[in-house]
Amino acid sequence: MSATTAPPAATHGKATAVFTCILAALAGLMFGLDIGVISGAQQFLQKDFGIGDDTLGWIVSIMMLGAALGALLAGWLSSQLGRKRTLILGAVLFVGGSVLCGLAWTPHVLIAGRLVLGLAIGLASFTAPLYLAEIAPESIRGAMISLYQLMITIGILVAFLSDTAFSYSGNWRWMLGVIAIPGALFLFGVGFLPESPRWLMMKDRQPEAEQVLRKLLGSNDAIAREIGEIREQLKTPQRGWHLFQQNRNFRRSVGLGVLLQVMQQLTGMNVVMYYAPRIFQDMGYATESQMWFTAIVGLVNVLATFIAIGLVDKLGRKPILYIGFVVMAIGLGVVGTMMHLGIHDHGQQIFTVVMLLVFIVGFAMSAGPLIWTLCSEIQPLKGRDFGIGCSTFTNWVANWLVGLSFLPLLNGIGQAETFWLYAAFNVVFIAFTIWLVPETKGVTLEQIERKLMAGQPLRQIGR
Ligand code: BGC
């Protein structure tokens, strides 16, 4: 390789890598803004357009369907266009979609705008973690995946806060339109990102890959090592679909990834993310308090994510998931019971809010970040893109179903029963975790792959 010039200081290389990762993790921010922004706008939308719960359910949930489509397309786009251009496309769609939502002159235009936003997020939610994994130095790779989840929660919080600010004037157009500004900043930032060296090598563009690595790593030795490693990895071509058809063990890991994402969504977290003000309304709160409590939900979601980041490599994945599911089941079970008994005074209101926050803590410290981590750890190298693609797609389809079914469930089986149903799912997931989920703490990806392919039971492919 042509590494003859004097290397810049290694620390400079590392700083550039961290900066690059932060910028890419901003894609997580867009993910979060998208999820959070709709909750505060709903009651104003219903009033302005005079629409019922059915149309509202579509406005909320079409975004997730778009994201599922975007995630499907992203695998192909990011391998054809490259990671960077796919992220740029995501950012452009994000800005366009937000503006369209802000201007929407009929409910149908709004549904179209939400679909575009969804496509944007589907592209970003597949490409950004892939880019992060390819570009982050080994020593900070785990932290970067956590950073991505943290950015999702920060995006949700920012959207909740901006919704709260605009709720005084009831201006849903600004609520939905204003997220075009962070979207535009992201677009500007992505313009400065280097292309992924791994993708450049895939396309036989080694000199450009070396140039990027020079900025990221600094020293010539490190560049040569990285180029060697990438070349080694590329010897294992991604033949996910082929492997899926041929190999029963790979089908098991794909199945587990899909199941994990269904579990994450059926915890009920997004019921709260999309409908929190409505839930607070049903507890008897006026509009202003609904919005502020929703912002507190967002804040608790951010803060509790730090518990996961701090514990994941100490306690391990499974114990944290057990704690999370138990806490979530208790939180939702009690909220359901309070709604069943009727919330009559201020003390009961506050108690119910606190239990909802307990549920949020349970999710953010466990299933929120850990499911994404596990899904990227369990797939064998040859089928990793395909496996992660399947689980990400499932995340959005399940997310869509949860968003679409919540209002019909409330109106059909009743409020308390809906919360009990989600509480029951969380209890069932404790059993799934015992039977099926491996403990991947401190195990290399190669070890996991070896045990999976040797046909060991899924729960034993880790430690
Ligand atoms: C989930 C999203 C959820 C978010 C909440 C993510 O891990 O995939 O569906 O809205 O966490 O923080």
TrEMBL record:
**Which CDD domains does the UniProt record give?**
MFS_GLUT_like (cd17315)
Report the main location listed first in the record: membrane
| Source organism of this protein record | Rhodanobacter lycopersici
* UniProt similarity note: Belongs to the major facilitator superfamily. Sugar transporter (TC 2.A.1.1) family.
Q: Where are the transmembrane segments?
A: 56-75, 87-105, 111-133, 145-162, 174-193, 254-276, 291-312, 319-343, 349-374, 386-407, 419-437
Q: Does the keyword Amino-acid biosynthesis apply?
A: no
Protein's name according to its UniProt entry: Sugar porter family MFS transporter
Identify the PANTHER family for this entry: PROTON MYO-INOSITOL COTRANSPORTER
Question: What residues does the Major facilitator superfamily (MFS) profile domain cover?
Answer: 20-441
Query: Keywords assigned by UniProt?
Result: Membrane, Transmembrane, Transmembrane helix, Transport
Localization recorded for this chain is:
Membrane
